């Protein structure tokens, strides 16, 4: 859909419900809450048309799931999405996958395919929710079950090539020690499906797909999703803030200065600003007020995060809040009394793994701009 059409759609949606907040956060977004990503949409579509698999990574809440969902909606091919975060074991993985295969295919076709299975699952319909249940019972031959179910995923859609998405794929390592190896040993023979691996822990994803000795080494095309360019996000914000304030341009700019174009935090802050403007549009500093409200709302969470940190991690975060110096520089080590560079290195690694920091082109940033403001506020008070 072109920009003009999107904007028209959005306006008609708003005029139907003038009072609805036009921003959304916390879950997957699509029109009219979705902006930009035109280049990414084009490139990912083109990869999915090829026979190459895709690895899409970004820090938390940059919009991976929304982007993939949007693409799947426009590609006329069967799609299966499995969130690895809620998979509890390899058998559970096989059962969830089987459930999705059953829901996308006529029962007769599935029944026929099951004849070649070495272990036949129990498939039942939950009468209350109309939901399918698949259970392999307490069978021990996990490897055979996995192989049968995954091979069926690749073979059952005879006319169209399926797209199979594994969301939060880095969780594969928590499910079982053999899982990563087993999966790859089966998937490598598939030539009908496109696999898409989404991941939000860059170091883990890189380890899985970029380390020579790991099973998924160079298994697909690695695509790193960035923040939304500020120029594009500015237009998206302006369009939605315009009916609320004549200062919409400045407000949009202030929101983006605070969030630096982080998709989730930008929508979060814009949502709050819109609420403030809708209740009293003569308010002088809507963005500042919204930031304060959000900080107040999350104060307990931030206290908890902070008190769970090691001393060195606290010092590194304070340093990153107060200066733009590299945390590995001599000045930083001295100024914030963080000890040796190896201590800082371990701290940075820990903070990255726990999602407090993100690394963008050799530059470390605190991921949550509100948490950053909370830290600097505490240092001042
Ligand atoms: N293209 C977009 N336009 C505007 N806002 C977006 C866009 N993509 C994502 N967002 C915002 O970011 C939020 C997070 O999006 P999404 O859940 O797709 O990200 P994710 O990378 O899959 O997150 P997670 O790491 O938690 O799985 C959305 O709720 C929305 O507020
Ligand atoms: Mg996601």
Tell me about the largest β-sheet: 5 strands, parallel
Q: Write the H/E string, N to C.
A: HHEHEHHEEHEHHEHEHHHHHHHEEH
* C-alpha termini separation: 49 Å
The CATH superfamily of the largest domain is identified as P-loop containing nucleotide triphosphate hydrolases
Global Rg:
24 Å
Q: Approximately how much beta-strand content do the residues carry?
A: 5-15%
Return the domain count.
3
* Shape type: globular
Explain this structure.
The protein has 381 residues and is an alpha/beta fold. The protein folds into three domains: 3-28 and 228-303, no CATH class; 38-224, Rossmann fold (3-Layer(aba) Sandwich), CATH 3.40.50; 309-380, Winged helix-like DNA-binding domain superfamily/Winged helix DNA-binding domain (Arc Repressor Mutant, subunit A). The protein contains 17 helices and nine strands. It has a five-stranded parallel β-sheet, sandwiched between helices. A two-stranded antiparallel ribbon has the order 3-4. Strands 8-9 form a two-stranded antiparallel ribbon. β8 and β9 form a beta hairpin. The longest helix is centred in the C-terminal third of the chain and has 22 residues, at 286-307. The site of adenosine-5'-triphosphate has 24 residues, from α3 and α12. Residues 64-65, 167 line the site of magnesium ion.
Write the topology of this structure.
Layout lengths: L2 H14 L21 H12 L3 E5 L6 H11 L4 E5 L6 H15 L2 H8 L7 E5 L4 E5 L6 H14 L7 E5 L4 H4 L3 H9 L6 E6 L2 H9 L9 E5 L5 H12 L6 H12 L3 H17 L6 H22 L3 H12 L7 H6 L5 H13 L3 E4 L2 E4 L2 H12 L1
Parallel strand pairs: 1-6, 1-7, 2-5, 5-6
Antiparallel strand pairs: 3-4, 8-9
């Amino acid at each position: 859909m072109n920009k003009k059409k999107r904007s028209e759609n959005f306006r008609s949606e708003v005029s139907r419900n003038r009072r609805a907040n036009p921003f959304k956060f916390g879950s997957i977004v699509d029109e009219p809450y979705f902006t930009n990503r035109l280049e990414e949409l084009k490139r990912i579509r083109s990869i999915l048309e090829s026979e190459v698999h895709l690895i899409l990574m970004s820090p938390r809440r940059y919009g991976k799931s929304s982007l993939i969902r949007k693409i799947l909606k426009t590609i006329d091919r069967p799609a299966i999405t499995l969130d690895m975060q809620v998979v509890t074991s390899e058998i559970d993985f096989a059962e969830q996958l089987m459930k999705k295969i059953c829901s996308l295919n006529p029962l007769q076709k599935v029944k026929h395919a099951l004849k070649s299975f070495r272990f036949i699952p129990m498939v039942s319909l939950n009468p209350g929710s109309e939901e399918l249940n698949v259970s392999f019972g307490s069978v021990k031959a996990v490897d055979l079950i996995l192989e049968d179910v995954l091979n069926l995923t690749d073979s059952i859609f005879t006319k169209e090539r399926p797209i199979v998405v594994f969301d939060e794929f880095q969780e594969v390592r928590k499910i079982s020690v053999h899982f990563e190896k087993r999966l790859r040993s089966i998937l490598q023979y598939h030539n009908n499906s496109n696999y898409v691996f989404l991941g939000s822990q860059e170091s883990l994803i890189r380890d899985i797909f970029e380390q020579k000795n790991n099973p998924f080494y160079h298994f697909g095309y690695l695509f790193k999703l960035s923040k939304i360019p500020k120029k594009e996000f500015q237009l998206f914000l302006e369009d939605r803030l315009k009916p609320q304030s004549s200062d919409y341009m400045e407000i949009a700019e202030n929101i983006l200065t605070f969030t630096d174009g982080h998709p989730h935090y930008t929508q979060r802050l814009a949502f709050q600003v819109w609420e403030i403007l809708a209740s009293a549009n003569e308010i002088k500093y809507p963005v500042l007020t919204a930031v304060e409200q959000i900080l107040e709302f999350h104060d307990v969470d931030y206290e908890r995060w902070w008190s769970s940190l090691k001393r060195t991690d606290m010092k590194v975060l304070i340093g990153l809040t107060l200066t733009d110096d590299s945390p590995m520089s001599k000045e930083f080590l001295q100024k914030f009394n963080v000890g040796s560079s190896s201590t800082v290195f371990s701290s940075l690694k820990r903070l990255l793994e726990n999602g407090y920091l993100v690394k963008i082109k050799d530059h470390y940033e605190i991921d949550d701009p509100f948490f950053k403001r909370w830290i600097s506020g505490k240092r001042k008070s």
